[in-house]
Write a structure and sequence with these properties.
Elements: H1 2-44, H2 53-84, E1 92-94, H3 96-105, E2 127-129, H4 131-146
Antiparallel strand pairs: 1-2
Helix pairs in contact: 1-2, 3-4
Amino acid sequence: SELLRAQKAAAWHEVARRIAHEMKNPLTPIALCAERIGRQLDRVGKDPERLTPEVVRVLHECSLTISGEVQSVKTLVDEFSQFARFPAAQLAPSDLNEVVEGALQVFSGQLAGVEVTKELADGLPRLMLDREQFKRVVVNLIDNAAE
């Protein structure tokens, strides 16, 4: 049903938002540490008694790998974050009463034991709104109230 689809979409948006947030938190310190390792190796690498050239080469290579991988993960997280955002509103002149009626039809025969009372005003001007997003809002409000 449309109600179930709206609930699943809202749940997935929240999951995506939280995962993206949690994944981004450790990435900045990792990147900063990798850069710091590189700077330290530049200084220490000039003193051959402290580190062999092979160790410096390997550590530089690791530092570059870490930095590159962090950037890859950041890109992935940014793309995943885009999923968590609501799509851009598709505004169009709309009859608010029609949108509300459409949202109420989703619940037709679905709310056993729950009475929904509606009071719609006649003669409202058309509004610029995204019909589907506004319908989702009404569906979520009714669903939450019914629970």
